[in-house]
């Protein structure tokens, strides 16, 4: 997955907003809360994808080669995929979708209704 594919996928999720910040990182939010980030902190190719995850998923993923606790966000159970060969695109999309769900579930019921996340 590249940044363009990442942005397209995140855009397809319900009630998302996008901003470019922190030196050009592609930051995706739901209800004003971040659920996924694509950044490139080194010269040359090599996007890095970061996302919120459950406690169990955090533990499992950070034991895999090429996936690390996300800088500045690890205490909130975020991981960063540093090596794109560490995870298939289909799995990455699944984790990003789960991150969207986790963050959206923490919004107030009113926010969820206003954003069309619940009926």
Order of strands in the sheet with most strands: 1-2-3-4-6-5
Strand content: 25-35%
Most strands sheet: 6 strands, antiparallel
Q: Could you tell me the CATH topology label.
A: Aspartate Aminotransferase, domain 1
Mean pLDDT: 93
Rg: 14 Å
Overall number of strands: 6
In the predicted model, the low-confidence regions spanning at least 5 consecutive residues are: none
What proportion of the residues is helical, as a percent range? Answer: 25-40%
Q: In total, how many domains does the architecture comprise?
A: 1
What is the ordering of alpha helices and beta strands? HEEEEHEEHH
Secondary-structure arrangement, i.e. CATH architecture: Alpha-Beta Complex
Count of individual helical segments:
4
Shape verdict: globular
InterPro entries: YjbR (IPR007351), YjbR-like_sf (IPR038056), YjbR/MT2646/Rv2570-like (IPR058532)
Protein name: MmcQ/YjbR family DNA-binding protein
Keywords: DNA-binding
GO molecular function: DNA binding
Short description:
The protein has four helices and six strands. By secondary structure, it is α+β, with helices and mostly antiparallel strands.
